[in-house]
Amino acid sequence: MTENFERKIPQGDDHERAVCRDCGFIAYENPKVIVGSVVSYEDKILLCKRAIDPRSGYWTIPAGFMELGETCREGAAREAIEEANADIEVGDMLAVYTITHISQVQMFFRSILKEPKFSAGIESLEVALFDWDDIPWDNLAFPTAKWALKTWKENQSREVAEPDLRMA
Q: What is the pTM of this model?
């Protein structure tokens, strides 16, 4: 926050905000949105070994911060390209997690790898397809990756109705 801003509760609000001392502009700070996918190919799951912090050297599903001007699905597809050079078909919504202590909303989709072609992107050390029993559970980077994988497994054989996410 720059020196022209002070933290206070604006009139009619109930949260402390960054407010400009000169003009009264309120700089709202909102949670960041993470989008990603549990990507499958046949009976295998695509995982990426992180090349960046946090949790460099640990495995995760392709995911990252949503960018301005893209839908959630577009962001999930972009992340798969950035992290795994993987062309995926983004399917239905799998899970949404609210992680309050880091101010994030994480949205994960069920997705399919179109072809078994992938390689480590700039944010990954390594990318691989894993059989379910070979997933490195003790070396997963984030709890939400583990939760999303387990949710995928629980719903693998279930047909899930496609929600209308045109606004998502």
A: 0.86
Q: For the chain, how many helices (H) and strands (E)?
A: 2, 10
Question: 57 and 120 share a domain?
Answer: yes
Q: Which domain holds residue 55?
A: 32-155
Question: What SS3 string covers 29-63?
Answer: CCCEEEEEEEEEECCEEEEEEECCCCCCCCEECCE
Could you give the 3-state DSSP secondary structure of residue 108?
strand
Instruction: Label residue 81 exposed, middle or buried (CB < 10 Å: 0-12, 13-18, 19+).
Output: middle
How many domains are there within the chain? Answer: 2
Query: Mean pLDDT score of the chain, rounded to an integer?
Result: 93
* Angstrom distance (rounded) from CA 35 to CA 125: 20
Calculated CA dihedral for residues 72, 74, 77, 79, nearest 10 degrees: -70
Whether residues 48 and 102 share a domain: the answer is yes
Residues in CB range of 115: below 8 A, 6 or more apart: 87
Q: What is the CATH number of the domain that holds 19?
A: 2.20.70
For tokens 């407010």, the residue is: 19
pLDDT, one tens digit per residue, over 6-53 is 999 999 999 999 999 999 999 999 999 999 999 999 999 999 999 999
Answer whether 152's CB lies under 8 Å from 110's CB.
Answer: yes
